[in-house]
Design brief:
Protein name: Membrane protein
Distance between the termini: 20 Å
Pfam family, one: DUF3180
Helix content: 55-70%
Keywords: Membrane, Transmembrane, Transmembrane helix
Number of helices: 5
Number of strands: 0
Number of domains: 1
InterPro entries: DUF3180
């Protein structure tokens, strides 16, 4: 029996699989958010209150929490403490953490892009004192969004299963049949 030849097209089972979050997708989200917020702030800047310095600080707290959770999950997976026993990390909780990481990555991209769009507007208005005063808050928000996206990608990476050691030893022979070590 021969192995199926890969065609490069996703099969029926691969079509709905959840894959890792791609940085380019997050960058696209950030660019769209930046454009949208730049347009909104450009036409409505006078209607908004001034930006407080701590407006984006909650992003830092969530990012720090996700980094800590990532280290805990990574250690549990490395120590093979995954299962349904008491003192073990249940697999459904790992799946929930992956969902949290994916949502946080998108939120971080939206926040970073949105704050960047606001900052571009503020940098274009060099003569307004209010725009000058709002810049630090926008910079704090951008950094918080980037940190949240990075922490979310780290958490998602930590939730991966370890590589199967058997797959390294099962290299196919030149004729296509599997070899046994």
């Amino acid at each position: 029996m021969t192995a199926p030849v890969p065609t490069g097209k996703p099969g029926p089972d691969d079509e709905h699989k959840l894959g890792p979050t791609r940085v380019r997708d997050l960058l696209a989200v950030a660019v769209v958010a930046a454009l949208a917020l730049w347009i909104v702030i450009r036409y409505n800047y006078g209607a908004f209150p001034s930006l407080p310095w701590l407006a984006g600080i909650s992003l830092y707290a969530v990012a720090a929490l996700e980094v800590v959770i990532g280290f805990v999950v990574r250690k549990r997976i490395a120590d093979r403490e995954i299962g349904s026993g008491s003192r073990q990390l249940h697999p459904i909780n790992v799946a929930r953490l992956v969902a949290l990481a994916k949502a946080s990555a998108i939120l971080g991209a939206v926040a970073a892009g949105g704050w960047a769009g606001i900052l571009v507007f503020l940098l274009q208005n060099l003569i307004l004192d209010a725009a000058r005063a709002d810049r630090p808050g926008a910079i704090i928000g951008i950094v918080g969004g980037v940190l949240l996206a990075a922490a979310a990608l780290w958490l998602e990476h930590c939730c991966r299963t370890p590589d199967d050691p058997m797959s390294d030893n099962a290299d196919p022979a030149p004729d296509g049949s599997p070899t046994v070590a």
